[in-house]
Model the fold of this input.
Amino acid sequence: KQEVTQIPAALSVPEGENLVLNCSFTDSAIYNLQWFRQDPGKGLTSLLLIQSSQREQTSGRLNASLDKSSGRSTLYIAASQPGDSATYLCAVGAGNMLTFGGGTRLMVKP
Amino acid sequence: GAVVSQHPSWVICKSGTSVKIECRSLDFQATTMFWYRQFPKQSLMLMATSNEGSKATYEQGVEKDKFLINHASLTLSTLTVTSAHPEDSSFYICSASPRVRKNTEAFFGQGTRLTVV
Done:
C-alpha cells in the first residue's frame, strides 16, 4: 500500500526566504505526482503536476522535482511571500486515484 | 483547466438526518470520481471510488450503507451521508479526471464542510 510522507509538518519562515518542502513515497509505481495548496477551510488548488516520465515542473516561483526511483519529490518556493502561507500537500497518482501526504503547514511572516 | 463543482460548500444538519453532496464535472466527462474526507489537522483520505453506471468501491473502514454514492451520469456523482452523527462532521471533497487517460491531472471540487449537531 502506498504511503506518502511530508517533511516538515510545519514550517515558519521570514518573508523573502527560499524554501524546500519534501515529499517521499514508498511505491515508485506511480503515474504522476501533484502538489496542492490548501488554505484553511478551503478546497485544494493544484499547483504543479509532474508525470512519472518527467523530472521537474516549474510555475512562477514554484519548482517541483521528482525522483521516482528514490521515491522523492521536492517543492521549491522562491522568494516566499506572506500570501504563500497555507498547507501544501503532495499526492501521488495511480490510475487517477491519489494518495496524499500529511501536508506541510507553511507560515511566511512579514 | 477542467472544472469540478461541488455543492453545497457547507452544511449544518441535525444528528440522525441525511445530507446529500453533489460533485459535477462541468466541462468534461468522468467515468470515475473520487470522494475524500479530511478531519481537522489531518490529510485527505480516500473514502470511495465512484464509477459511472456501477457500484462504488469503498476503502477499508468506510461504511457503504452510511455513505451512499450514486454516479448516475458521466458528469455527476453524489455522496449521501445517511443518519449523520457528530463524528461524521468533516470536510468532504471530490475529484475527477477527464476519462481519456490514466495519467491526467486530478481536479478537485471546492469541498463541503459538514457539521452535524
